[in-house]
Structures are given as C-alpha cells and as structure tokens.
Amino acid sequence: MNNVGPATSISRGIAAEWTRTAGRSFLWTAAVPLTFALPLVVTFGIAAVAERLAAVPGQSYLATVSTTNSVYWVITLSVSVMMVTAAYAHGSQWRGQTSDLNAFLFPRSWTVALSRWIYYGTIAAISAAVLLVVVMVTLPHQFPQIYGAVDITDAAGIRFLWTVPCYAFAACGVGVAIGSVIRTPSAAVAVLLFWVYVGENSLNLLPRGHTLQAYAPFLNAVAATGQEVAFLPRFGRNGSLLYFVLVAVALFVLTAVLPPLVRRISVYRRATLSKSDAA
After folding, report:
1. pLDDT 10s digits, 209-233
2. What is the pLDDT of residues 28-64, one digit of tens each?
3. Which residues are CB-neighbours of 118 under 8 A, at least 6 positions away?
4. Own/partner long-range contacts of 150-154 (Cβ < 8 Å, ≥24 apart)
5. What is the DSSP letter of 94?
6. Is the distance from CB of 141 to CB of 188 less than 8 angstroms?
7. Burial of 274 (0-12, 13-18, 19+ CB in 10 A)
C-alpha cells in the first residue's frame, strides 16, 4: 500500500488534504473568508473615506491613487492569512494520533509537506488573483475621484496579476517550512507574523541594518510585485521575486526534506552495521 512513487504519494497527499478540509473546516469557514474579507473591507473602507473627503469643498490637496498603490492590502493581508493557515495546518499534523496515521500513510514525510504547499499555495494564488481583479476593476468605477487612474490593463495591473499569485504560492511554502520546524501550530503562526510584520521592518534599527534589510525576503517579494514601497528591491523586481521563491524552496528543503532523509540514512547505516556485526 505504501510502496508507491513520490508523484503518487504527492497526489494522494493533495487528495487527503482536500478530504480533511472539506465541509465546515477552519480553512473554508475562517481562513478563506478572512483572505477575502480583510483586504476588501480595508481597501474599500479607505476608498470610501477618501472619496467622501474629496467631495468636500477645499479638499483639492487629496492625491489620486495610481494602479501601483491600489492593491496594497491584498498583498499584505490575503497572502499572510493563507501563509499562516498553511503553517498551522502542517504544524497540526504532529498532534495526537494524527502523527501516527501520517507516518503510516506517507512514509516519505516530505511528500506530505509538498502536498500541503501545493494545496494551500494553489488556493492562495487563486484567491489573490480573484481579489486583484475585483479591487482593480471596482475601485475606478465606484471611487472615480481618487481611484480613477487605476487600470487593470496597464503595465502595473498586468504585473500584479502574475506576481502577486506567485508570491502567495511561494509564501505558503514558507508557512509549511516553519510548520515543519515549529510543531506547535500557534507558535508557528506567531513566528511568521513576527517575521513579516516586525522582524524585517525592524532590521534597519540594527547596525548595518539597511544592508541586512536589503536581503529581507518578504520586503523583496512585496517590492517585486510592483507595489509602491520605500524599500528598493535588492535584485531588481523580477530578480527579487525569484529570490523570494528560492528562499521558500531552500527553507522547505532544509526543514521538510533533509531531516527525514538524514534520519533514513542513519537508520539504514545502523541496520547495515547490525547485520555486519551479526555476520
């Protein structure tokens, strides 16, 4: 039953995760609704206030918003929600009898991790793409005075449509990697949120902090999407997005692939030594 190839094991892992989260699970009752609701409420709430202020006589100083600054809350909130959801889900697999069941069904533990990355990453990428379309299409029609310049078909809009889903997918890989190391789900979520919202933004307070911050993965990824930020991407826009993807892959390999592989090699060596001693 368990003697199957990695590709089959990964496809089974995706199917198992779909079954596990089907129905009234946390993913569909909380995580995905929050992924949509948080950025939409904040984005359109700010837009409504700005549009109302723009209609007040004497408020001509209010600046209009371009496409490059229209989807900030989608990038900031929706990606983070799905990333911590992936971390929580993967960290939960070692709790109670679930760990024994996973070990029996998936002897190659890295295939389970990769399955979760693909599963949650795909949901995150699709959610981000839908949100981008909704925001960039709705803003100029509903709030023309401030957001009239937003255009989904200009260079910035088109860039958002492929870079943000790529960022969301890769971020879920980081979430799974952290869940592999920190096997307490709530702690894994706390570490990720601290890293994204506090750690990287505080690096410039350290000696040579600006040099260190230039390599901050999440800041590079956000800047790479085309979003207007004060941070300059270290490797150029496309290079910085590739840098974030490589960081996600490296973390995944170091935390989810290498440890079980090292354990397998150790067990094999001990078994070989035992046989040689018995002979």
Report:
1. 888 888 999 999 999 999 988 877 7
2. 999 999 999 999 999 999 999 988 887 777 655 567 8
3. 10, 14
4. 150/65, 150/66, 150/67, 150/70, 151/67, 152/67, 154/67
5. G
6. no
7. exposed
